[in-house]
Write a structure and sequence with these properties.
Shape: elongated
CATH superfamily of the largest domain: DNA methylase specificity domains
Distance between the termini: 34 Å
CATH class of the largest domain: Alpha Beta
Largest sheet: 6 strands, mixed
CATH topology of the largest domain: Adenine-n6-DNA-methyltransferase TaqI, Chain A, domain 2
Structural class: alpha+beta
Mean pLDDT: 91
Radius of gyration: 27 Å
Number of strands: 27
């Protein structure tokens, strides 16, 4: 029994129907719409509802529309909701609340996700069996209206999170398109984006560019390319931080996961404000990742697989260099310099220096391009900060409402402000 007044603790099988999946013979699978949509496991889970690829003409176990689709194999505990009837394979279970509100149960199972993962770890093949799932304890208020109100609050926050995520995705698409336009057409003296209908363009090795632009080798625009330090790193904050590949995120330096070195060479090789870091080796997906250092008040060094790029500021603004290298088309060009090994790829900085880069001759136009993209970046950052607040609120609400620590009525006012 739960220690919270008005609450109960029961096994999942006592409050819900659990239907464990069973895989049909593969000869009945098809991408053609023959039979019901088929889900073998959670590979096709998306935000809340799955997107199936296969159909199956042999019906064994069916998850009815509205039931919770629960992954019983790694990653154990991941859930979606059936938006229609699905045939489910042995990687899933379908769960439908009986004595517990269905949406409350959905949120509770999400809340328990880390506990499900922990319970399944330690075996060669991470999974949870039928007996374990049936016995899983569920806490809930005995009042159905209270269950429904808790579910409504958590669903309201979920909708706010989904809408904010969609807004960020939209703004990212707009920024990507804007970046491509600005880095190929630029801005004229009136602050307008150039077009071939209104301005003069010329042919170049990189395609059509404004006549005010030029194409240069990267080496001709740099005053330094410098490898970082090669040393073992410590978790303890002794010495100075040493930036690594994972500290380069979306063209910025991220300080959330730092390692340290107290070696003299680390102290002697620190970054200056505006230095651009380039990741020269790792998997092909990570080669070419860059980040710009903007924290002159925090001395940091950098690892040997990163290369510091210092541009000649009279020819190439460091912000423009960072933006140009992060543009999707140019990332593809950078990766063409990579030597592909068995486990990793590598871009030789000497070869990188031969990369052709298109840019305005006038630094002032480079600065105008930087300012336009900075405005877009700040807008996305502000929305992302709101998203993080919503996620923190959701975590706090789940901890309070799904454990009975706070009455649902005391939380309504906070959620109404969303």
């Amino acid at each position: 029994m739960s220690t919270v007044e008005g609450w109960k603790k029961e096994s999942l099988s006592r409050v819900a129907q659990i239907n464990m999946g069973q895989s049909p013979d593969s000869k009945y699978y098809s991408e053609e719409k023959n039979g019901l949509p088929f889900l073998q496991g959670c590979a096709e889970f998306t935000g809340r509802f799955p997107k199936n690829v296969l159909y199956c003409s042999q019906t064994k176990k069916v998850a009815l529309a509205g039931s919770i689709l629960f992954s019983v194999r790694a990653p154990v505990g991941k859930i979606n909701v059936a938006d229609q009837d699905y045939i489910i394979g042995r990687g899933l279970a379908a769960i439908s609340g009986v004595d517990v509100d269905q949406t409350y149960l959905e949120h509770y199972l999400k809340y328990e996700a880390s506990s499900f993962r922990n319970a399944s770890q330690g075996s060669t093949f991470e999974a949870i069996n039928s007996s374990e799932l049936n016995k899983w304890p569920i806490e809930y208020p005995t009042s159905k209206p209270e269950q429904a109100k808790i579910a409504e609050i958590l669903s309201t926050v979920d909708r706010a999170i989904e809408q904010t995520e969609a807004l960020i995705a939209k703004q990212q698409r707009i920024k990507t398109g804007l970046m491509q336009d600005l880095l190929t057409r630029g801005i004229d003296e009136h602050g307008n984006l150039r077009t071939e209908q209104t301005h003069k363009f010329k042919n170049s090795p990189l395609g059509r560019i404004p006549v005010e632009w030029e194409v240069e080798r990267l080496d001709d625009l740099l005053i330094e390319k410098r490898y970082g330090i090669s040393t073992s790193l410590n978790e303890e904050p002794i010495g100075i931080p040493v930036l690594r590949m994972n500290n380069l995120v979306n063209g910025e330096v991220d300080f959330t996961d730092l390692k340290y070195s107290d070696r003299k060479d680390a102290r002697n090789l620190t970054l200056d404000d505006g230095d651009v870091l380039f990741n020269r080796t790792n998997s092909i997906d990570y080669v070419g990742r860059t980040g710009i250092y903007r924290h002159p008040d925090q001395p940091v060094s950098f690892a040997s697989y990163l290369v510091r790029l210092v541009p000649d500021q009279e020819k190439l603004h460091h912000e423009y260099l960072n933006l140009w290298l992060n543009n999707g088309v140019n990332q593809i060009r950078v990766k063409q310099f990579a030597t592909i090994g068995v486990q990793q790829a590598n871009v030789n900085p000497t070869n990188l220096g031969t990369l052709s880069i298109s840019l305005p001759k006038a630094i002032i136009e480079q600065e105008q391009i930087i300012a336009a993209l900075s405005t877009a970046r700040k807008s996305i950052r502000a929305i992302d900060e709101n998203l993080q607040k919503l996620r923190s609120l959701k975590t706090a609400l789940m901890q309070d409402l799904l454990s009975g620590k706070k009455l649902v009525t005391s939380m309504l006012e906070e959620v109404d402000r969303l």
